[in-house]
């Protein structure tokens, strides 16, 4: 009986495709080893999710926007996770580059991530990450620390499939799927 129920739950799960974009001047030049990409990818694969694209680029407003647009237009990923550039350093411009591209912001995602992070460190108040939809692609800005990126993603991971389904036009009642929207 439990095996049949589990199969039904798995069949109903969307299993979103993920792309991961690390934003860092030093990591993009190879000056510093990137540990965010393997940490985030490891977390996702551990949850059974597919990572279809990865990349690293410098903290450049135009380059971030260009890459996000290209990845959304390619249509390979349901979710694009960025890591880095969400703090208050002069070159941290990820939220500023992301916001103009969003068709709709989803403030509950970064609110939940920051709330969970605050349980671990007061430095969570610095995070300025955003989340929202570009078309039907979900974009989430994660912090640039591997540990913080995974902790933030873990805080919202269970909601991602539901968000992606709704963004792609699923008309089922949210109450049936455990949602509240």
Overview of this protein structure:
The protein is α/β, with parallel strands linked by helices and 181 residues long. The protein contains 7 helices and 6 strands, in the order αβααβαβαβαββα. The chain has helices spanning 2-12, 25-28, 36-46, 61-74, 94-98, 108-118, 146-167; strands at residues 17-23, 50-57, 79-83, 104-105, 131-134, 137-142. Strands 2-1-3-6-5-4 form a 6-stranded mixed sheet, with helices on both faces. A hairpin with a 2-residue loop joins strand 5 (131-134) and strand 6 (137-142). Helix 3 crosses helix 7. The protein is globular. The protein starts with a helix and ends in a 14-residue tail after the last helix. 34% of the residues are buried. Mean pLDDT is 89; it is low at 1-13.
């Amino acid at each position: 009986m439990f095996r049949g129920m589990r199969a039904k739950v798995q069949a109903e799960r969307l299993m979103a495709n993920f792309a991961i974009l690390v934003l860092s001047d030093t990591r993009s030049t190879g000056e510093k080893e990137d540990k965010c990409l393997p940490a985030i990818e490891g977390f996702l694969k551990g949850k059974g999710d597919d990572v279809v694209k990865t990349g690293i680029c410098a903290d450049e407003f135009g380059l971030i926007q260009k890459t996000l647009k290209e990845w959304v237009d390619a249509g390979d990923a349901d979710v694009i996770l960025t890591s880095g550039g969400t703090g208050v350093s002069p070159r941290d411009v990820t939220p500023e580059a992301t916001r103009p591209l969003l068709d709709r912001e989803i403030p509950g995602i970064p609110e939940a991530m920051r709330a969970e992070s605050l349980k671990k460190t007061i430095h969570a108040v610095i995070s300025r990450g955003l989340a929202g939809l570009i078309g039907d692609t979900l974009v989430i800005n994660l912090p640039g620390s591997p540990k913080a990126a995974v902790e933030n993603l873990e805080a919202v991971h269970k909601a991602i499939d539901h968000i992606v389904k709704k963004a792609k036009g699923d008309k089922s009642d949210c109450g049936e799927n455990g949602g509240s929207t």
